[in-house]
């Protein structure tokens, strides 16, 4: 990844300081987001993908804290910005949409007003102008009868419409990066397709980069340019989408792909990766995945592998592919 | 919407009738003849009979009931035994005092309660939170007469900042208002805090932050409006509760309001007065419940605009 | 082989952790432990309540003096070595009276609350379960009861029946059922829709059995919390009624009565007569409130804070 990235996350570590101990939810994650591209982050629940996004946005609340790493937005270090400064960046240069459109909007205000708020916060325009921009954005994201919908309350809209409102809210200040955390998981499949298409169109037309967080490999295949696979707080494999699917290297990614049932295969039992996600308080001494890995060797239980380069723009955190070039530490 | 309101009002009517009926019956199964009670033991039997007839007390119960309701609908609640005045007038004389007291108490309660609740929620689990919530719980636990006596003792007697009783000057209203408002402030503080804490867990708060709103803005613009909805309902109920039952406060501070009127009526076995007072205060409570209901339906857009 | 063994032991270790997290059902011992751990105040209040109950039960043994014995020579003594809380206008030891008064307060707190909640529970179950006209009638009745200002209603009942402690018992037992009825009814309404009720109905379980064996146990957590929080309300009611003169009559050791009789001495230089019972009331009420609050946090899932 040699193009200059609009968002450069380097060795991010976010830990949760709980009564039971220190949980390394994000453990040395590095992600580069080039301009105008869609980056996917995949993994099971609890692997740290959402926490990575929250850390980047500065939305991490007690007891979570960013303990190490650097976040560069257009070459500007935003890791240690004061809350006041960070608030100017959030929603403005980098914005985020979430999984549950049903509950992500304030029920007591009309939706148009909530999007208008985003404009008024960051841009120096009057209320009327802001309202006009909101209506235009509604049209842009495909909300029918935008003037009428401006005054609607969230409970009067369907899930798909609400998610469009959320996307509108996130895009209205023309951010450089849009982080979408499982944006379609709560939606019907047909609506999901529409939303994904919308996001791709916005990316192409406005040059906004998108980080798409999901656990659905199908969605990844659909619109992502590059993918990071995360497990237990670390990146296990990263590659361009096609490369990831064609030349899958890491046993975990292989397991994920194998778990997708196929129509053209007959199986008595669906494949699953054996075992459960490890308790982050008691991670294994070796590779995080060693206890469930079918290909694990003695060394895997003792040492932690680094992220090795295994092809052009392809990295794998597995001793099987140990090479000279290390893209990342342990 | 209008249909809903009408429906609630219509349901309230049988409740009101039931109330009047129950009071009516309860006050008449008292052992002892009301006229004798009123006029004393040693009066001539003939006189008793004459007075009974005059007051319609010789009629069977259900006739008396309908007579009473008929009169009541015209605003006539009978004549007080002891004070020999129209009950309606007596009540209307006393009511403004209770209103004054309740308004002051409500203001005190709301200002202190809401502020304390917000601060406690924002500083959740820290010292201020525990302090305020402990204080609120104490406020709810202290019997009203205890607060009254304590404040009276300390501020009126020992420190002489306020008069011990009476209600004429603004100064005299301070202590009773605080006493009456104390419990309410505690309830409001607790409810505000717990609602605010709960609202802050919601997803739309996360969205507000993601938009770039500072924490203060998030609380004031997004969280509060959601959290205060049930609190407003509670406030309406508290007002009606205060209006109808500041009994203890009025007793201790000697305020001539409805509550004290009721106590006097009981002490002097003044049946019409007691009946009138209780019915009056019950109507206030029923009205208060209706208003609270209405407020809740109007303020919440989810209910107002329908799904 | 070594690989396999290694893997098994690591897996076993993980399984233990995993099992611990995937959650066993919370037994009440667990809940009690959570309460003690999280809410020290509530735990302390629980202990305090037990102490008060013991004190009341063993009053004759605990109280330093006979609480009825009058002594005109010892009148109105300030708190001191001989009488920790002083003596009242008839020379009776205030501390002993307070200890015996605890009996009254606790009895008034527990018995009428139990009775009124029992009435309310049954009515609420019927209302929620049968619905329709039954529901309407019961709920209107509850509305009527709730429309009365509670203190005034109790006062009217006392007016009808005369004063005295027994009558307070009866009054408080009969008028406070409406709140419980409402809560139980709404819980019944939502529990009625649950699958296990459907299942029970489909195998022919009769309605009354269903109400009491299936729905009632699920209302218990809320009922327990409600019970703990209604007790102090009952205690306060009695104290207020006695204060107003329509409750307990002399020479009863009711705390409310002690306050009103001590009132005239408040401004005359003997404040302990009124203050001591006030503080006693406050401590008992606060103990129940703190405990009830803590109990609600542990038992009632709807109110759990993250």
Overview of the molecule:
The complex is a heterotrimer of chains A (330), B (307) and C (306). Chain A has 330 residues and is of the alpha/beta class. Helix content of chain A is 32%, strand content 25%. In chain A, the strands form 2 sheets. In chain A, strands 6-7-8-3-9-10-12-11-13 form a 9-stranded mixed β-sheet, with helices on both faces. In chain A, strands 2-1-4-5 form a 4-stranded antiparallel β-sheet. Chain A is globular and about 65 Å long. The two termini of chain A are 19 Å apart. The model of chain A has no long low-confidence stretch (mean pLDDT 87). Chain B is an all-alpha fold. Chain B contains 14 helices and no strands. The relative contact order of chain B is 0.13. Chain C is mainly alpha-helical and 306 residues long. Chain C has 13 helices and no strands. Chain C starts with a helix and ends in a 7-residue tail after the last helix. The chains are: A alpha/beta (330), B mainly alpha (307), C mainly alpha (306). Chains in contact: A-B, A-C, B-C. The interface between B and C is large, with 51 and 46 residues.
């Amino acid at each position: 990844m040699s193009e200059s990235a609009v968002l450069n996350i380097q060795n991010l570590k976010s830990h949760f300081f709980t009564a039971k101990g220190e949980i390394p939810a994000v453990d040395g994650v590095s992600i580069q987001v080039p301009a105008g591209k869609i980056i996917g982050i995949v993994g099971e629940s609890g692997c740290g993908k959402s926490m990575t996004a929250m850390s980047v946005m500065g939305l991490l609340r007690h007891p979570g804290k960013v303990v190490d790493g650097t976040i560069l937005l257009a070459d500007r270090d935003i890791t240690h910005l004061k809350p006041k400064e960070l608030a100017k960046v959030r929603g403005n240069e980098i914005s985020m949409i979430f999984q549950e459109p049903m509950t992500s909007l304030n029920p007591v205000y009309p939706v148009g007003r909530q999007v208008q708020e985003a404009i008024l916060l960051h841009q120096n325009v009057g209320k009327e102008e802001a309202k006009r921009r909101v209506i235009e954005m509604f049209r842009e994201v495909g909300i029918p009868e935008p003037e009428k919908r401006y005054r609607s309350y969230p409970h009067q809209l369907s899930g798909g419409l609400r998610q469009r409102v959320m996307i509108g809210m996130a895009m209205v200040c023309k951010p450089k990066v849009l982080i979408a955390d499982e944006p379609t998981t709560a939606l019907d499949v047909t609506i999901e397709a529409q939303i994904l298409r919308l996001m791709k169109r916005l990316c192409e037309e406005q040059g906004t980069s998108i980080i798409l967080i999901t656990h659905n490999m199908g969605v990844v295949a659909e619109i992502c340019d590059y993918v990071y696979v995360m497990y237990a707080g670390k990146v296990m494999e990263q590659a361009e989408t096609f490369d990831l699917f064609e030349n899958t290297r890491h046993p975990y990614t292989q397991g994920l792909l194998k778990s997708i049932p196929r129509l053209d295969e007959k199986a008595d039992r669906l494949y699953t990766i054996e075992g459960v996600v490890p308790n982050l308080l008691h991670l294994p001494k070796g590779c995080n995945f060693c206890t469930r890995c079918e290909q694990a060797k003695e060394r895997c239980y003792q040492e932690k592998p680094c992220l090795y380069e295994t092809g052009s723009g392809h990295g794998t955190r597995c001793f099987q592919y140990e090479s000279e070039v290390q893209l990342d530490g342990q | 919407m209008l249909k809903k309101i009408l429906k609630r009002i219509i349901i309230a009517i049988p409740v009101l009738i039931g109330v009047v009926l129950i009071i009516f019956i309860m006050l008449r199964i008292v052992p002892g003849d009301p006229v004798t009670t009123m006029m004393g033991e040693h009066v001539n039997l003939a006189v008793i009979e004459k007075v009974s007839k005059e007051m319609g007390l010789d009629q069977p119960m259900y006739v008396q009931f309908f007579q009473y309701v008929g009169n009541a609908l015209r605003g006539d609640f009978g004549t007080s035994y002891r004070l020999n005045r129209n009950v309606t007038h007596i009540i209307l004389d006393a009511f403004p005092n209770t209103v004054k007291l309740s308004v002051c108490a409500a203001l005190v309660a709301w200002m202190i309660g809401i502020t304390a609740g917000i601060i406690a929620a924002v500083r959740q689990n820290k010292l201020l939170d525990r302090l305020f919530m402990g204080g609120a719980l104490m406020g709810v636990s202290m019997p009203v007469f205890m607060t009254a006596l304590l404040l009276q003792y300390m501020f009126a007697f020992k420190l002489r900042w306020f008069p011990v009783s009476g209600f004429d000057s603004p100064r005299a209203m301070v202590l009773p208002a605080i006493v009456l408002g104390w419990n309410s402030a505690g309830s409001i503080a607790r409810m505000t805090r717990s609602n605010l804490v709960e609202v802050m867990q919601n997803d739309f708060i996360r969205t507000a932050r993601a938009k770039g709103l500072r924490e203060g803005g998030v609380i004031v613009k997004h969280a509060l409006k959601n959290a205060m909805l049930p609190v407003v309902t509670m406030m309406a109920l508290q007002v009606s509760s205060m209006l109808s039952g500041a009994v203890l406060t009025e007793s201790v501070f000697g305020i001539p309001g409805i509550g004290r009127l009721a106590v006097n009526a009981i002490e002097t076995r003044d049946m019409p007065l007691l009946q009138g007072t209780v019915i009056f205060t019950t109507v206030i409570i029923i009205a208060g419940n209706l208003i609270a209901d209405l407020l809740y339906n109007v303020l919440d857009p989810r209910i107002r605009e329908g799904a | 082989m070594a690989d396999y063994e290694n893997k098994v032991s690591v897996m076993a270790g993980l399984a233990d952790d995993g099992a611990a997290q995937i959650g066993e059902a919370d037994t009440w011992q667990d809940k009690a432990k959570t309460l003690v751990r999280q809410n020290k105040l509530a735990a302390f209040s629980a202990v305090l309540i037990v102490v008060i109950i013991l004190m009341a039960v063993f009053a004759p043994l605990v109280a330093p003096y006979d609480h009825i014995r009058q002594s005109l020579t010892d009148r109105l003594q300030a708190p001191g070595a001989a009488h920790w809380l002083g003596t009242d206008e008839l020379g009776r030891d205030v501390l002993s009276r307070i200890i015996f008064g605890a009996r009254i307060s606790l009895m008034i707190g527990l018995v009428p609350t139990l009775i009124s909640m029992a009435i309310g529970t049954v009515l609420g179950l019927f209302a929620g379960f049968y619905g329709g006209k039954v529901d309407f009638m019961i709920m209107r009745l509850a509305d009527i009861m709730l429309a009365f200002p509670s203190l005034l209603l109790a006062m009217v009942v006392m007016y009808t029946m005369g004063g005295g402690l027994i009558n307070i018992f009866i009054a408080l037992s009969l008028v406070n059922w409406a709140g419980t009825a409402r809560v139980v009814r709404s819980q019944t309404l939502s529990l009625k829709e649950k699958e296990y009720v459907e299942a029970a109905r489909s195998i022919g379980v009769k309605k009354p059995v269903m109400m009491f064996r299936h729905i009632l146990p699920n209302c218990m957590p809320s009922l327990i919390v409600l019970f703990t929080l209604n007790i102090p309300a009952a205690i306060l009611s009695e104290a207020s009624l006695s204060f107003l003169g329509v409750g307990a009559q002399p020479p009863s050791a009711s705390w409310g009565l002690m306050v009103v009789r001590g009132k005239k001495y408040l401004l005359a230089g003997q404040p302990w007569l009124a203050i001591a019972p006030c503080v006693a009331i406050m401590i008992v009420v606060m103990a129940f409130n703190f405990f009830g609050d803590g109990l609600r946090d542990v038992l009632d899932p709807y109110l759990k804070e993250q």
